[in-house]
């Protein structure tokens, strides 16, 4: 006779058997008795050995036991991870990370190797110096210029209007150079040193060239209209002539005797630069932002217009504008724009790229080459903050004839 207790016992045994039959096997051990680590990577050198810029320079690490797969190599600069661009067993190419300092410990880890490379000490220099000129709250810089000694001059405004031209030494000392001319002429859009050390400038929307005496002081009218149109920018040639881009069209030449010549050029012109026997102007024509070249014929005339660079092929029509032009001594054209990229560099081959991509920001108001390898940029407050930036270009600027 099967009792109730027997039935309960059989049920328990059946459930236990089913549970044991469904139980998963324990995971295999991670321990692999046959595992052998890959060889330790070794760093023997980094090129360039000096002058590399944080966030800019492409570095080449030489050594041993790297992976040929870029993703299988991790390169640390202290705690910053660099992006490896290409790899062989003995070389890694990578973009320097955003870490400017001395004695950075560079270490390489390779997939399936248990050990990092031994630390290799390296230095990365800074590419930009934010707030080179000390702007106070609400202050902005417009036109900028440098002298031959490397001092920076900035036409400044605040919420109340113009506050004059300020001088900033290489050590950042700020002083007053010239007061605002008036409440109706509060600032200067463009400034260039000219013969005798005077600073020549103009206010947007006017047909007057002003001059500030050498050493500073109150500005005075130097040339009032008399053939001049509204101006967008000015520059000097080697003979002391002023060349001005018309903000509503035309190119103007003004001799030291204040004689004006007008050369037709259609467009909203915002930038001009005299370089290597030609006048370059930049601005907008028929919805396109371009730079045009006009070869100089002797000292008095311009040859036919040439298209030099079409910025709209990069950013699209009716988009980012040309606001400043300057050249390096080796022929690179630097275009200051109101694009998020800030500055675009155009090589003599006409190939171009964003300059110091990811480092520079804000719309360019004005640019000038300083002493040595320094390029200065006056940056707008959109997206901000407004600042005067010193950029280490690692090359020298083409001559500014007014400073000679």
Overview of the molecule:
This protein has helices at residues 4-22, 312-315, and strands at 42-47, 58-64, 73-77, 80-81, 83-87, 91-95, 101-110, 120-124, 128-129, 140-146, 152-158, 161-168, 174-178, 190-193, 199-202, 208-212, 220-224, 231-236, 242-246, 251-254, 260-263, 268-275, 278-285, 288-297, 301-302, 306-310, 322-327, 333-337, 343-346, 352-354, 364-369, 374-379, 387-392. It is mainly beta and 404 residues long. The protein has two domains: 42-124, Sandwich (Immunoglobulin-like), CATH 2.60.40; 128-403, Neuraminidase (6 Propeller). A hairpin with a 5-residue loop joins strand 14 (190-193) and strand 15. The termini are far apart. The relative contact order is 0.10.
């Amino acid at each position: 006779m099967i009792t109730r207790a027997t039935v309960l016992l059989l049920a328990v045994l059946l459930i236990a058997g089913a549970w044991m039959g469904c139980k998963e096997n324990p995971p295999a051990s991670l321990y692999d008795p046959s595992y052998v680590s890959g060889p330790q990577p070794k760093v023997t050198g980094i090129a360039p050995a000096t002058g590399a810029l944080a966030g800019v320079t492409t570095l080449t690490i030489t050594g041993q036991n790297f992976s040929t797969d870029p993703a299988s190599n991790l390169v640390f600069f202290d705690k910053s991870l660099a992006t490896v661009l290409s790899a062989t067993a003995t070389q890694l190419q990578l973009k320097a990370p955003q870490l400017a300092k001395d004695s950075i410990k560079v270490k390489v880890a390779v997939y399936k190797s248990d050990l990092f490379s031994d630390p290799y000490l390296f230095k990365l220099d800074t590419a930009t110096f934010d707030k080179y000129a000390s702007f106070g709250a609400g202050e902005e810089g417009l036109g900028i210029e440098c002298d031959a000694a490397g001092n920076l001059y900035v036409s400044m405004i605040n919420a109340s209007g113009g506050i004059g031209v300020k001088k900033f030494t290489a050590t950042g000392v700020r002083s007053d150079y010239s007061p605002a001319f008036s409440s109706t002429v509060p600032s200067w859009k463009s400034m260039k040193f000219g013969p005798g050390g005077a600073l020549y400038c103009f206010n947007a929307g006017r047909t007057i060239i002003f001059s500030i005496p050498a050493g500073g002081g109150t500005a005075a009218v130097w040339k009032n209209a008399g053939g001049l149109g509204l101006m967008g920018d000015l520059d000097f040639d080697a003979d002391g002539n002023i060349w001005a881009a018309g903000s509503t069209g035309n190119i103007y030449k003004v001799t030291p005797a204040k004689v004006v010549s007008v050369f037709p050029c259609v467009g909203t012109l915002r930038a001009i630069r005299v370089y290597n026997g030609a006048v370059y102007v930049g601005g907008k024509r028929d919805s396109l932002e371009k730079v045009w070249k006009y070869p100089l014929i002797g000292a008095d005339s311009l040859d036919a217009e040439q298209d030099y660079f079409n910025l709209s092929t990069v950013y699209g029509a009716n988009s980012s504008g040309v606001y400043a032009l300057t050249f390096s001594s080796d022929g690179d054209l630097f275009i200051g724009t109101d694009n998020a990229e800030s500055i675009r560099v155009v090589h003599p081959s006409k190939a171009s790229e964003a300059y110091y991509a990811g480092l520079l920001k804000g719309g360019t108001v004005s640019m000038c080459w300083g002493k040595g390898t320094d390029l200065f940029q006056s940056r707008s407050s959109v997206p901000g903050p407004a600042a005067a930036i010193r950029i280490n270009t690692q090359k020298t600027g083409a001559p500014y004839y007014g400073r000679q």
